[in-house]
Amino acid sequence: MDARSRGPPVSASIADDLAFQSAAQLAALVRDKHLSPVELVRLYLDRIDYLDGRLRAYITVCGDRALEAARRAETAVMRGEPLGPLHGVPFAVKDQFDVRGLPTTMGSRILEHAEAMDDATVVARLTAAGGILLGKLNLTEFALGGTVQFPFGQPRNPWNLDHDPGGSSAGSGIAVAAALCAVALGEDTGGSVRSPAAFCGTVGLRPTWGRISRAGCFPLSWSMDAAGPLSRTVEDSALLLGLMAGRDPRDRLTSQRAVPDYRAGLDGEVRGLTVGVIRELTSGEDTDPEMRQPVLEAAQLLDKRGAHVEEISLPLLPHAGAVFMALADSDGAGLHLGWLRRRPGDYDQGTRRRLLTGALLPAAARHQAELARALIRAQVLAALERHQVLLCPTSPRPAPPIAQTAAPITSKAEVAARFFTRRSYTTPASLAGVPALAVPGGFSASGLPLSVQVIGRPFDEATILQVGHAWERATDWHRRRPELRGAR
Amino acid sequence: MDLSPEHVRAFARTLGLDLTGDDLAEVTHRLNGLLDALGPLGELPLDSVEPVPWTPDPEGLR
Fold this sequence. Notes:
The complex is a heterodimer of chains A (488) and B (62). In chain A, 41% of the residues lie in helices and 12% in strands. Chain A has 488 residues and is an alpha/beta fold. Chain A has a single domain (14-479), classed as Amidase signature (AS) domain (Amidase signature (AS) enzymes, Alpha-Beta Complex), CATH 3.90.1300.10. In chain A, helix 11 packs across helix 12 and helix 11 (320-342) packs across helix 15. The relative contact order of chain A is 0.15. Chain B has two helices and no strands. Chain B is elongated, with a radius of gyration of 18 Å. The model of chain B has no long low-confidence stretch (mean pLDDT 90). Chain B has 62 residues and is mostly helical. Chain B has helices at 5-14, 21-38.
């Protein structure tokens, strides 16, 4: 760890200290009457007011509504009423999830005024647990990635404002990293929770497909869409997963399996665990050595703590990015065909061109991609029969400059480098339907976050959270705060 | 063989989509890039794959 940058210094302001506390710590402070939910909501609203003009994490801030909820939460505390595990804790959601009375814009002018009639199940569950909704977060248009002109402002990476915060849950990564909320909710089809978590230096969890309801969540690709938390600690992701997971009559594809107490299981014990380090994604030539290093360090740590670690080969994974785009983009194009015909000019050009490409993919090529997905899934699941978790970087390199991601495509050779390679790091878990966790892994020499990805067996989120927690306890990367130079 | 912008424009018309100018040029590059990337999949043992639906939890779904 010493060979890499130590990262930016820790800020000392007391208000910052409070804002950067974990959701679990904030809930305990509220419960013990050491912290007023009203003061806490005001603190985050002040930070949003002060910082978000540049960061652009939020599309909608519901300040009055949040303060009203905070006053009710405070009254409940003072009266000694039963309190939920998230009582008084401010959270925010990607603007892909419905909140009654607010528009679900999907980051698009097309849905700018599309007011939701009801709360998404995940929003309802977090609110029922006592959470206070602060607002709705920016995203790449229609959760696709590749937006060139963001209709609601260009989201910026808190660690370097000229760099991409990741997508599609860009605002969720920014808001958690810059402490503009306690925790956030994102949606991950091919890495849309894990990529912003990796680029912004937060924890991000994609649960098993079917573990969390998608009712009230605008779709992209039905067989891969998965809601998941972004947080500053692994414990907070465990807490949110436990609150959101489980059967939902509004989403027929949610599992009926019992929901474990993920948070209670975090004891740092990894002895006897079997771990495979994926060679193609960790040691391959596409992986920046800076991104490789924390994965190797995590593997060493687990080995020292009594886990059985070995390098494994999953040779189909470099195909995963292209297979994913063939499937997800043609699914998306099917959903958008009517608007593509009638309102093409209302899309951002990057979104429109990506959807048009998906629309024009020959059916035989899509069929081949479906079959290749089955092979990739079989390879991932076979590896997970031999190993309880798989390790690899969350991304091949740290966050790129915004200007680089917004440049037009001028040759077919650019397409693979721009779109497929990096997606091959997060899409194997999506194609296989298994859970995956992104955890902070330090900083590059240029001060940008690095990230370790832990992939697990279906419905075994508990083990990947346990591994992430063990790594987090052995490092202090999750305690680092961006200086937010240029945002203040 | 790569698709030409004329091919792509004609495909688009069959779907009721009108592609012109910069959109046509970039979508042509994107489509050719995607088809190139999918090409090697033909060398995988795809014939061995049973085309059945799959979920992580078949018993857990209604």
